[in-house]
Amino acid sequence: MTSDRIDGYATALIEVARAEGSLDQVEDELYRFARALESSDSLRNTLNDPMIPAAKRQAIVEDLLGAKASPTTTSLVSFVVGAGRAHDLPAIIDRVVNRAATEKDRTVAEVRSAVALTDEQRSRLAAALAAATGKQVEVKVVIDPSIMGGIVAQVGDVVIDGSVRNRLDQLTSRLS
Amino acid sequence: MNALSLVVLAAESAPEPAHTPHTWWPEPYEIIWGGLASLVVFYGLWKFAVPALKKYMAARSGRIADELARSASARVEASAEAERIRAAKGDIVSERARILATADEDAARLLTEGRERIVTEVADLEARAAADLVASRGRVLAEVQADVARLASAATEEVVIRSLDDATRHRLLEDAIATIGGHA
Questions:
Q1: Which of A26, A98, B107, B158 can bridge A17 by disulfide, Cβ–Cβ 3.0-4.6 Å?
Q2: pLDDT tens-digit series, residues A39-67
Q3: Which of A125, A127, A149 faces B168 most closely, judged by CB atoms?
Q4: Where are the domains of chain B?
Q5: pTM, whole model, 2 decimals?
Q6: DSSP secondary structure of chain A
């Protein structure tokens, strides 16, 4: 898909979410779904399979997100998948998140954590990352059990890895 | 008939006395005729036998001289042959000595070279064995270290996983936030 088309889809999603008054929530939910889609080959292949009817693929999305995301988020993802753009969904969502952050004069900080963060923890983490990077950040949390504990934060090209997985890898490296 | 025959006939024709006047001394005529016969015999011997005897003796002397000459020649030849044999023997002895000396030198050289080669080969083998030992020790140590590291990592990870409950994860999260904030 061309950049213009990605921009078009991103703009549409932002406007719908904004119209619904839940841009921040939708933004977060879309971001988590994009990361889940990237990490799951079977889900990605299923949603991209042209042999599966669009209605069936949309039903799959609604089954997956129905209980975990807002109706707006579910509808938006279902719309993109129904349009046959599931392959570009992560790029579209990243563009949505980046544009939303830019509009708020912020930079997206992708934070991977083994457990969900409370709002208060997100606020403190955002403040800490802002202080560490010198940028106002929009924290996007992805639950990633593989890091075992702690967090991995990426702001632009800067990666701050405070995960248990990283410490275990360092320990293994020192022992080898 | 020759003179000897005449003397014998004259003697036989003389009258034989009835007896001799003396036992040991013959009659004069016997002395005369006997003397004459002896002279004739001696003459005949001198005339015919002595030349033949001289000739025979001369021939014998010649043969003896020839034999002596041949013996002398043979002796000279034998001496020459003996000298040649002695010389050959001397050559053989010197050649034997030379061959033995050469063999001794070759043996000594081969022994020296062999010892040097063996010493070099032994040194090479020792160096190679030492290098192999060091390499093997390093390899084994590396393998053991890698195994220990792998097992230690696996054990550590297992212990960490078992110790990670929700409270610990939240504490780690708070520690991470505090750490990021502390680096600011």
A1: A26
A2: 889 998 999 888 899 899 999 999 988 88
A3: A149
A4: 33-183
A5: 0.55
A6: --HHHHHHHHHHHHHHHHHHT-HHHHHHHHHHHHHHHHH-HHHHHHHH-TTS-HHHHHHHHHHHHTTTS-HHHHHHHHHHHHTT-GGGHHHHHHHHHHHHHHHTT-EEEEEEESSPPPHHHHHHHHHHHHHHHSS-EEEEEEE-GGG-SSEEEEETTEEEE--HHHHHHHHHHHH-
